[in-house]
Amino acid sequence: MENKIYRVGMADAKVTQSPGILTTIGLGSCVGIVLYDPITKISGLVHIMLPYSNKISDNSNKLKFADTGIQVLIEEMVKLGANPKRLISKIAGGAQMFSSKINSDIMNIGERNAVATKEVLGKLGIPVVAEDIGGNYGRTIEFYSEDGRLLVKTIGYGIKYI
Amino acid sequence: MRNVDISRLNEMYLDILKELGNIGAGNAITALSTMIGKKVDMQVPKVKILDFQEVSDIFGSADTIIVGIYFDLDGDVNGNILFALDIKSAASLIWSLMGLEVKEEFDELEKSALEEIGNIMAGSYVASLSTLTSLNMKISPPAISIDMAGAILSVPAIKYGEISDKILFIETQFIEGEKLIKGDFFLIPDINSFDLILKALGVEVNGK
């Protein structure tokens, strides 16, 4: 069976089952959150841009935020047959693309996104089994639903599976 | 918090933003021309409004490597400016400024030259907006990143994400000698500053 590749953009999410591949290209300060049910191999990836939906007045786009994005992703995965109690997660991104000299809010947005992601997953009881977070560089990620590997590619900071 | 819906900005706002972009970019390019001591021809800038999904592909693909030069904006108007260039354009600028051929990667000297080019262009861009609006604006020192387009453009996208599901930027193209240089200016005023700029230009913000 051919491995289908689903590309996830900013404020976007996709779900698949084995042997589908979920990818997001060029994660910066955003966070890519993979949820995975290891028994059914149903997988989901959401690419969030901001921490919490209740901090922003226009929060109709649920996939833009860590809290509502994860919620929607779980719902979509359950529809495919995933068991929410079995879900584990892998997360990547949350970089600070422009470092040092400037001191503003956006500088910490990557970190704030990562922190919010972990808080939300923690409250839902979903363990983060692997992460590649922070730094000042972009990441391209590919998740293989067949075996649960997450490939992280960077420019100048190597390639690895987590 | 009030909400400026960029997708619903009417034609008049767009014309004004386009004109600001035109004047700002015109000044930026004049500054560049003075800096490199050569004539630079500018094409009419284009105002583009895109969805988040589309923005990471403006340099071809989200994993295309680009140069981003980023500034904080403060004073009466707060926000950020990002000047983004493809690698070829950045290398052409280095060549024009320093007569150096960029090999595979930009070294520290070349990176600081790019920061300086960005600094002068963004500085004159902002100076012209400041004159036009009589609002005080100044930029921070530049910060540079050379990385995947998606990752660099996530920074303005997130900033815009706080107020909208769209992102607005101004594409400029200019020709130095025989080289076409393409650069994109992202001017990202904070929510309140956005209104302030329009108001300073005599535009009533209707609706919300």
TrEMBL record, chain B:
The keyword Cell membrane does not apply. One of its GO terms (molecular function) is hydrolase activity. CDD domains: CheC_ClassI. Residues 12-49, 110-146 form the CheC-like protein domain. It comes from the Bacteria. It holds the Pfam family CheC. Keywords: Chemotaxis, Hydrolase. This is Chemotaxis protein CheC. It comes from Thermoanaerobacter uzonensis DSM 18761.
